[in-house]
Amino acid sequence: MSTNFNELSGIKQWGAVIAGGALITAALYFTIFKNQSDKNATAQHAVDIKVRENNELESYRPKLKDMELQLANLKQQLEIERRIVPDEKSVDTFMTTMDGEALKAGVELRRFSAKPVAAKEYYTEVPFDMELDGPYYSMLNFFDRVGKLERIVNVSGLLVGTTKNPTVAKVKHQYQYAPNESVVASFVATTFFSHDLEPPAAGPGAKPATPAAGAK
After folding, report:
1. What CA–CA distance (Å, rounded) separates 56 from 51?
2. DSSP letter, residue 192
3. Angle between helices 136-147 and 92-105 (to 10 degrees)
4. How far is CA 108 from the centre of its chain?
5. How far apart are CA 18 and CA 25, in angstroms?
6. How far apart are CA 205 and CA 82, in angstroms?
7. Residue of 105, 194, 92 whose CA lies nearest to 146
């Protein structure tokens, strides 16, 4: 037989209210509060991971300036190495450089003739047959200037003759030399390119350099 709530005694009514509240609280805990608690725990775990990561990265902060300095030094060294042994295919800059040094030294570079390249393990040798004429000390000045270039240029097979007897230097052509010119020379100038790229196309059939305007 069912019993009306109003028919219960005061103590039993309070007991029923407390029991009902407990049931509602339990239901709320397992439906809302527990779900929110789990989300909070997950978020806190993520925060803890980030804090640990930040703490680990923070230990590198004192070393950051040293690392930036080392990186800058490495970039500078790489730039210097690129100037010494370029990683470019074109040989135009090499020819321009040699022409410029000849002009500064006061000699005439008469001929560039590319020889077969030689591929090594880490670099490629690119040799050129060259001829020049001019005053004796100007010739010495030219080779001194070439030896001081940032870019590596090796000179070999140097033969020197006089303007009156240029065949001693085994030059391919003879010119009408100026009165102040006393020597002619033939030699091989070898420059180098980084092996990261394919070597520049060069061969025995390369065109000789055109004599400068007003050549003697």
Report:
1. 9
2. E
3. 140
4. 36
5. 10
6. 28
7. 105
The enclosing H or E element of 113 equals strand 108-114
Confidence grade of residue 197 (pLDDT, cut at 50, 70, 90): very low
Report helix, strand or coil for 151: coil
Per-residue pLDDT reduced to its tens digit, 153-190: 999 999 999 999 999 999 988 888 999 999 999 999 99
Beta-strand runs (E) in 115-182: 118-119, 123-134, 153-162
Q: What are phi and psi of 181, to 5 degrees?
A: -85, 135
State the amino acid at position 93 in one-letter form: T
Q: CA angle at residue 101 from 100 to 104, to 5 degrees?
A: 90
The helix (run of H) or strand (run of E) holding residue 189 is strand 183-194
What is residue 60's three-state secondary structure? coil
Please enumerate in sequence order all residues whose Cβ is within 8 A of that of 169, keeping only pairs 6 or more positions apart, or say none.
131, 159, 160, 161, 183, 184, 185, 186
Alpha carbon distance 57, 126 (integer Å): 48
Query: What does the alpha-carbon distance between residue 50 and residue 48 come to, in Å, rounded to a whole number?
Result: 5
153: which 2 tokens? 């240029």
Q: Which residue's entry shows tokens 């030399």?
A: 177
The token pair that represents 87 in the structure block: 């990683």
Token look-up 């040094």 returns 101
